[in-house]
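re: the backbone from monday

yeah here it is again, tokenized this time
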């Protein structure tokens, strides 16, 4: 009875993580206060379930402790390690840690004639099932991008990891440019860093594109403003049309000590503009001021497949285990 109650209480994670995924896609910003009540619920339900397995006398009691240990002592450090090495963002790591606390063991829900989840693993660590589901869901996204780009006629070396985007739409986009002045690159300008730069200069993307030669001159900066953190809703950096040939100056390639004032900008923000270097910023500004469209990494946060992995886990169960069992391996 207590197990059924705690499992129902854990379902609060579904709307909470769904909202987090939606907000992260729109703004790439999540408040830290989101995770505290979820972790508190996870600890409360864990304590209640643990009391039901005391004293530890049966195989089921020992399995419960093993599963909780795997979830807390392996999944939580793994999430932290992925964040530390840059594999996932901070919010993604916190979401995975929270799920490890909330769902160390498989919940059970009875609906009509079936018990859900339908497919459970032998190990029985539910947070691990959520993670493997999320990885499999995430692997499907490059296939979607490839199909989308093929149908649109956008074929390139990066068609499975990026999408062609109008430069005028960049002020409300997220991700990283897959282009620089030389061609395709994995280390293009981060769009949040672009917004930071525009706010720091007190200008907009249309103004930048209308007179790139003037903005390239570091002496054109009279004063600077708060760059913010590059969030979409923190100021106007609106889109605009490409510059006409009349707007371009023959001295566009003039040799300045600090073109675009890139070094000054990064010094002002203490070099923390999402790993942007002066050269990366200059290359990116050259791209967005001279082209109509660019290849952009979508930068989908891992919390999105993590949410989908949770939903699939609560209904179907473990995708990988189900596949292996269908192949006769598990």
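seq for it, each position gets an aa:
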């Amino acid at each position: 009875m207590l197990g059924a109650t705690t499992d129902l209480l854990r379902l609060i994670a579904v709307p909470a993580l769904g909202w987090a995924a939606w907000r992260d896609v729109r703004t790439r910003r999540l408040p830290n206060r989101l995770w505290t009540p979820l972790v508190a619920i996870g600890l409360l339900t864990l304590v209640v379930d643990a009391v039901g397995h005391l004293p530890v006398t049966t195989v089921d009691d020992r399995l419960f402790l093993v599963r909780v240990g795997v979830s807390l002592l392996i999944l939580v450090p793994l999430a932290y390690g992925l964040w530390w090495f840059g594999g996932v963002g901070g919010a993604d790591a916190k979401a995975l840690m929270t799920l490890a606390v909330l769902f160390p063991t498989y919940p059970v829900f009875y609906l009509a004639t079936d018990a859900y989840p339908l497919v459970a693993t032998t190990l029985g660590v539910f947070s691990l099932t959520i993670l493997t589901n999320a990885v499999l869901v995430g692997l499907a996204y490059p296939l979607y991008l490839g199909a989308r780009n093929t149908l649109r006629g956008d074929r390139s070396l990066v068609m499975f990891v990026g999408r062609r985007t109008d430069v005028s739409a960049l002020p409300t986009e997220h991700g990283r440019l897959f282009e620089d002045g030389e061609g395709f690159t994995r280390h293009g300008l981060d769009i949040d860093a672009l917004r930071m730069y525009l706010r720091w200069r007190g200008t907009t993307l249309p103004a930048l594109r209308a007179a790139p030669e003037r903005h390239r001159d570091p002496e054109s900066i009279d004063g600077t403003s708060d760059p913010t953190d590059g969030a979409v809703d923190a100021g106007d950096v609106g889109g605009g049309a490409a510059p006409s040939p009349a707007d371009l100056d023959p001295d566009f390639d003039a040799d300045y000590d600090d073109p675009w004032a890139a070094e000054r900008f990064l010094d002002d923000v203490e070099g923390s503009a999402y790993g942007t270097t002066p050269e990366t910023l200059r290359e990116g500004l050259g791209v967005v001021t001279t082209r109509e469209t660019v290849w952009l990494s979508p930068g989908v946060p891992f919390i999105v497949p993590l949410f989908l992995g949770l939903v699939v886990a609560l209904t179907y169960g473990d995708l990988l285990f189900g596949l292996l069992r269908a192949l006769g391996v598990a």
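The first helix runs from residue 2 to 10. Residues 201 and 223 are 7 Å apart (CA to CA).
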